[in-house]
Amino acid sequence: MSQNDPHEEEAPRIRQMIIEDLPEVFHIGEEVFTAEYSQSLYRTWDEYEITTLFNSDNELCIVAEHEERILGFALGTTVKKHHSPWKYGYLVWLGVRRELQKMQVGARLFKELKRRFKEQGVRMIIIDTSADNEPAIRFFKKHGFDNVQEHLYMTLNLSKRHKKKAVKKP
């Protein structure tokens, strides 16, 4: 009699997100997109992100599930520009529970989302991430993304008092 190897467990099932998944997906995002992880992602991750994408592009909102537990999610949308024959896919969010990262859940989610984008006539997929998010950059390069361009984000905290710089008199 052989014992089951934990690495031989069946792969998670990738399926379209349903409304009952929204709270769990939101909580996974809260776990993954923290201020320590990325200031810009932390500021923009909220329940409206999920509900807006779910309501507008439901077929591009998918989850990875195993034994009725959601392991991760991918949320995408498409963009069609006027006067352009191209349709773009935008992978807006990809999140996997921290303890399951590096176990191919993200890769399986991306592969399915890419298939769905192709099915909808998308010719190019766009992603964005923080310039210092090395794990995400490695992940996307591994999946064929290139042409990395840095983008600068700036903030102005309106709740802080800003001191005026003293002007030196001659």
From TrEMBL:
CDD domains documented for this protein: NAT_SF
Cell inner membrane listed as a keyword: no
N-acetyltransferase domain segment(s): 12-159
Keywords, comma-separated and alphabetical: Acyltransferase, Transferase
Pfam families: Acetyltransf_1 (PF00583)
InterPro entries cross-referenced by the UniProt entry: Acyl_CoA_acyltransferase, GNAT_dom
PROSITE patterns: GNAT
Protein's recorded name: GNAT family N-acetyltransferase
